[in-house]
Every structure is written in structure tokens, then in C-alpha cells.
Amino acid sequence: MSIPENIKYIKSEIPANVTLVAVSKTKPNEMLMEAYEAGQRDFGENYVQELVDKHELLPKDIHWHFIGHLQSNKVKYIAPFVYLIHGVDSFSLLKEINKQALKNNRIIDCLLQIYIAQEETKFGLSFEEARDILNSKELKDLKNISIKGFMAMASNTNSERQIKKEFQSLKSFSDQITNDKILEIKHLSFGMSSDYLLAIQEGSTMIRVGSSIFGERDYNL
Ligand SMILES: *Cc1c(COP(=O)(O)O)cnc(C)c1O
Q1: From the CA of 80, how far away is ligand 1's center (Å)?
Q2: CA–CA distance, 134 with 204 (Å, rounded to integer)
């Protein structure tokens, strides 16, 4: 199927209140434009330089989501335009985003990345670390960031049961945060090509879908 058909199909499967982020890393601008012309406005990228280049050349009404692992020294390159930073996993990174947002006279929306997978290699905060950040006094001084919710990646496994368990752990953490009135959760970003329907079933409001829209990537980044 073509890119527009893929988008149309995925949209027909998901509720209207769930945001579809088209993950376009490694894909050329022509392919992003095909998606754009089909009405897609939310795009996700993992690499700062690639995101900066694409932002420069593509239409200005695109919402650019940064979904990769962000290094503090690179925040300044995306701060002028990024729409939502998904993978924030430390207080020092939040501080740097705040600093660069201030320089650009804007408020940057962020999601805290939570570690829910079994694997050792994934980035992210534990539930406890995330709660500590949200409760910290220092956070209140960061006027140019706004934490909108959480992002997570499930284990890379075929076990639907395992993935479901991991998604449920994030949802239940998010519900506790809401009940304790710590934060108003606007977005829960989880679910990719292989598991987005399950993710929505378990409470995702934002799915990040790459290969089901654009086809397999040449290399697995
Ligand atoms: C690449 C990537 C995706 C999309 O993966 P697909 O399996 O191609 O849908 C989603 N989230 C993150 C963080 C990614 O790096």
C-alpha cells in the first residue's frame, strides 16, 4: 500500500482523540511530503541533525516530535521549533531545555520517558525517579517547560502478554500521578507499528508509528 493509504488505514483503526505521530527517521523528504499531502501533520524524528534539516525544508505547520535520546548539548538546535520532546529522562536535561526555551521565548512541552521494559539497554526513569522529579521544588522554577505526560517503550518481545503488562504498569503509574494531583496528564506516548492497537487498548493517547506507514527502514535505528 502507499503512504497515504497506510495513514488512512491506521486512522480508521484508532479513535479520533489518539494522536498518530508518523515516525519518519531515515526517510527522505519526498516520503514525508506524501504523508503531509495526505493530511499528516505530526512527525517524529530521533536524530537532531536530521530533524533540523527536515524542519528547514518542509512546511512550517508540521508538528515536530523529538522521540530519540536527546543529549543536553544538542537541545539548542531544536529548541526554536520542536513541538514536543518525548524522551526526557533526567532533571538536568529538563533544566537545559528550560534554558534554551527561555532563550527562544517559548514554552517547550515535554514528556518524561519511563522505563517499563525488562531489557537493560533502554533509556528512561523509574516510576520513583519520575515522581521525585515531579515533586521537586526545583521543577517549579523551570517556567519555560511544561511536562505533559509520559512516554515509554515496551520490551522488544513477541509476547503480547509481556507488552500488555508493561503498558498497564505505565497506565497505572499515570493514574496514580493523576489521583495524587501531582500532574495533569495530557499525553501518554506508547505504542509503535507492532503494538499500537494494544497500546490504545491500554490507554495510550499518542502512538509513534514508523514502518507501518513508510515501510521498513534500511537500517534499524
Ligand atoms: C523508530 C521508533 C518508533 C517507530 O518504530 P516502528 O516500529 O517503525 O513503528 C517509535 N518510537 C521510537 C522511540 C522509535 O525510535
Answers
A1: 24
A2: 20
Cα 24 to middle of ligand 1, angstroms: 9
Separation CA 187–CA 30 (nearest Å): 29
CA angle 135, 132, 113 (to 5 degrees): 110
Q: Whose CA is nearest to atom 7 of ligand 1?
A: 193
CB of 67 closer than 6 A to ligand 1?
Answer: yes
From ligand 1's centre to the CA of 192, what distance in Å?
6
Distance CA 150, CA 111 (A): 5
Dist CA 115 CA 87 (whole Å): 10
pLDDT, tens digit (0-9, with 9 covering 90-100), for 125-165: 999 999 999 999 999 999 999 999 999 999 999 999 999 99
Model pTM? Answer: 0.96
pLDDT tens-digit profile of 29-55? Answer: 999 999 999 999 999 999 999 999 999
Atom of ligand 1 minimally distant from the CA of 67? 13
